[in-house]
Amino acid sequence: MTRRGIVLFAAMSVIWGIPYLLIRITVAEISPALLVFSRTAIGAALLLPIAFLRVDLRPVLRHWRWIIAFAAIEIAIPWLMLGAAEQAISSSLAGLLVAGVPLVGAAIAAIVGGPDRVGRRQLVGLLIGFAGVAVIAGGDFDAKNTMALIQVAIVVVCYALGPFILSRRLNGVPTLGIMALALTLTAVFYAPVALVSWPATQPSADALASIVILAVVCTAAAFLLFAALIKEVGPVRATVITYVNPVVAATLGVLILSETLTLPMLVGFALAIAGSTLATRRPNPSDAGAAAAELAESAEA
User: Fold this and answer.
1) Of the four listed, 13, 44, 97, 104, which is most buried by Cβ atoms within 10 Å?
2) pLDDT by residue (tens digit) across 278-301?
3) What is this structure's pTM?
4) For residues 1 and 13, is the Cβ–Cβ distance under 8 A?
5) What's the pLDDT tens digit per position in 76-119?
6) Is 15 within 8 Å of 244 (Cβ atoms)?
């Protein structure tokens, strides 16, 4: 990885490890839909004027269908699901489960092919990693948390698909324009829902501060950095920031919210990291070819 890639990776690892704590604080006082609206509206207000000044939006608008898809898959759906899930589970557990993003990304790469295809070693990594995620969930979930598990699973799939849309369908399109329009579309979509769910009393100072940090640092600034990281290292390896995000999320949850980390959660996380490391490692050409041949033989059988 280049020096630029390392700097971007380190920044994103910390910036997107923070939201789990802030979301947990905020959804205790306002609805997940209102949080999504607030976060995207502020982010759009910051990025849209800059986009108008610095970017010719005409080439961006020509890709409006994929920008809508990106807005839905990377922002509108997963942010609502994550906020709803954190009303039932800890921020630490949510962060640990999202460690499954690189695994799903590697699985998608195996299906669609291209430069991010996986080989035999990567397939083994997928199995180990998914087993780790299962251990994390099984070690802390009970029947009443089933819906939260489903919601986080949706988040994981969406976060894995988003980078592929950027790299394969919006490659070469100005990043600033994409992010500004995606945030604006999401804010407009959630505006009616946000008005209906507006709280009767003003949220606390902690909740309001969390919203501002989520919007400015974890949304507006983070999306620009993440797009740059995808261009630098590719869509699958860009999601490897979720190796470190859970560590940040779990540490903050324990220190600030007094959350508990169980042994199965830690063991499962270790397996998820090991599996993700294998699953996202660049395969040797011979290894990839052997894996493809094996898959072809099994299909013929």
Assistant:
1) 97
2) 766 655 554 444 443 433 333 333
3) 0.79
4) no
5) 999 999 999 999 888 878 877 887 787 788 778 777 766 656 56
6) no
